[in-house]
Structure formats: C-alpha cells, structure tokens
Here is the input.
Amino acid sequence: MSKLAAIAAAALVAALAAGAAGAAPNRSSDITIVGAGSTFVQPLVAQWSTQLGPAFGYELQYSGIGSGGGIAAVSGRTVDFGASDAPLTPDQFSACH
Here is the structure.
C-alpha cells in the first residue's frame, strides 16, 4: 500500500503544480484550494502547502479525515480534491463527476 500511497502523493503534487502554474502570474492570495481525505498524506500536503502556496499565490487547506471521508467530500462536492489510500471503485468514481 505504500507504493500506491506514493503514486497518489505524486499525482497530487503534479495536480497542484499544474493548477498552480495557471495562478502563478496572478500571485493573488485570494485563491483557496480545499482538500480532505487520507491522514497518511496529510503531513506531505502540510509540508508542500507552506512552500507551494505562497510561491504560486494560493492557500491550500487540507483536512486529514480519513480516506472514506475524503471520498465522501469529493462525491458531495464540498472540497476541491480528495486523497484516498485506495483507488476508487467504479461507483465511487462515477459519483465524483
């Protein structure tokens, strides 16, 4: 499971970097990206957010509420992104659209 978590963490970094690249010229701190989910990745997100957020002009808020909570938050559209230690089932994936 640690390999899967590493892949998920790498994907999260890539997504944040790609999203932040569009915000870079603006440098506005009015942008807040909210995420929730896996407690495993919470320390990584906390470390990244202190460096990436100010560099690209956004604030990143992440709540480690567990993978199930992250899936529910994404499905309920109460967050911008979620993190899970396991891949989504086809039904969970469909609910996120």
Summary: The chain has a mean pLDDT of 78. The first strand starts at residue 31 and ends at 37. The helical segments are 2-23, 42-56, 67-75, 90-95.
